[in-house]
Amino acid sequence: MKIAKRLLPLLLVILAVIGIGCSHVDKTDVEEVITNELDLLKNLDSKTTHKYISYKELFPDATENTKLSTEVKEVFSLFFQDFDYKILDIDVDKEKKTATASLRLSTMDAHTLAQDFAASQLKKEILDTAEADSKNTKEVSISLEERYLILNQLLKENDYKTVETNCTMKLYNTGDKDEVWEIKRTYSLENDLVGGLMTYLSDPDILSPEDTLAVYLKTLKKMDTEQMSTYLGVESILNTTDTAKNAIASALVEQVHKNFNYDVISSNIESYTATIEAKITTFDSDAILSAYQQELDAYLSSPDAVIDGSQKRYQKSHELLLENIQSNTATKTAEATFYFVNDGASWKLMDDSGELGNAIFGILTTSPVEEDEDGLEDTDTDAGSEEDSGDSDESYSEDEYDSNSDTE
């Protein structure tokens, strides 16, 4: 009995050592599996990447493409170029044949990338909408490939910092004779491996209303004449086939490019709606029209106006307006209110009233020459000579000249 009592502690120690040994073997096996898998991500193995994250998972609502380009396929390689990890702890449950590993991941700053993506996608939507309006095409939609091309461009052009996050990985034992450990692939794990990018891309508030307004206005400032005319609904002065009017339209857009700016005064968010008060700075349309009218009146009061005839007077009026637009340096600032609604996907600017167009172009939303066209242009379609147009009683410009002469 005394011998048995002496051997009992020794047996307990032996059993404990055996148990620790088995546990250590299991942890080593689990660690080996994790290392093998994540090292493949570090080494930019595309098969391993797509095993965890498919192309569709980042953009589940996007239109599917039948074939993706090479630029799309290299997105994940660019994303994981600085990927790293460290295993912090491994816990093995032998009875349930499961294991849990705690890791620290080093990934690209997915939050900043998602913000940049949302801004770039909105810019594309705005420009595509302008193009669709001008061509009377269907509603704009961005395909899966187009979204990945945006990501590809962002990853190539920008240098994103690396951030660290903690991650929990689940594994299970297959239970076969080799007792192989496998990583349990879940949405949470996939999201962790890309630094939360899947969550950030689906966040309807990834861009605030102020950020959204900034994208709208900065995109607008860089639009060409056709895009701006259709997007703002000011076709009467910007969308025309007349050569002289085209020159005026281009000059107005150039004024926008040079002078347009804005400052946010206040913003208010209530649930899924938001209101932003802002100051819009643009070219001074009043100053342009005032200078134009003075020069036009002086011209119409001169003998040259009668000699030129109505057709040339009409052309002269275009020339004077164009010159005043091109030489304008005056700006004005006015307050404007912008309304937004969050549709569950992102914040959208509501501008059905065309306030944005009015804020930018002011009283030039209609051409002053167009308004006076009946007076400045001969109504007789056959009147092409100076003599015929000079005798026309319907010429507003000539009547204007006569009245000015009488007063003198």
Q: How would you sum up this structure in a few lines?
A:
By secondary structure, the chain is an alpha+beta fold.
Task: Write a structural description.
With 408 residues, the chain is an alpha+beta fold. 56% of the residues lie in helices and 18% in strands. It is built from 20 helices and 8 strands. The protein has helices spanning 2-42, 46-52, 55-58, 70-73, 75-79, 110-135, 144-157, 187-193, 197-201, 209-221, 225-232, 235-238, 243-259, 285-300, 303-327, 355-361, 368-371, 373-376, 386-391, 396-407; strands spanning 84-93, 98-108, 162-173, 181-183, 261-270, 273-283, 331-342, 347-350. A 4-stranded antiparallel beta sheet has the order 1-2-3-4. A 4-stranded antiparallel beta sheet has the order 5-6-7-8. The longest helix is centred in the first third of the chain and has 41 residues, at 2-42. The termini are far apart.
Main pleated-sheet profile: 4 strands, antiparallel
Instruction: Give the strand line-up of the largest sheet.
Output: 1-2-3-4
Class derived from helix and strand content? alpha+beta
What's the total helix number?
20
Write down the overall mean pLDDT. Answer: 80
Q: CA-to-CA gap between the ends? A: 142 Å
Helix percent reads 55-70%
The low-pLDDT segments are 10-22, 371-408
| Strand count | 8
Strand residues, percent = 15-25%
Could you spell the SSE succession in H and E letters? Answer: HHHHHEEHHEEHHHHHHEEHHEEHHHHH
Net shape: elongated
Task: Work out the radius of gyration.
Answer: 35 Å
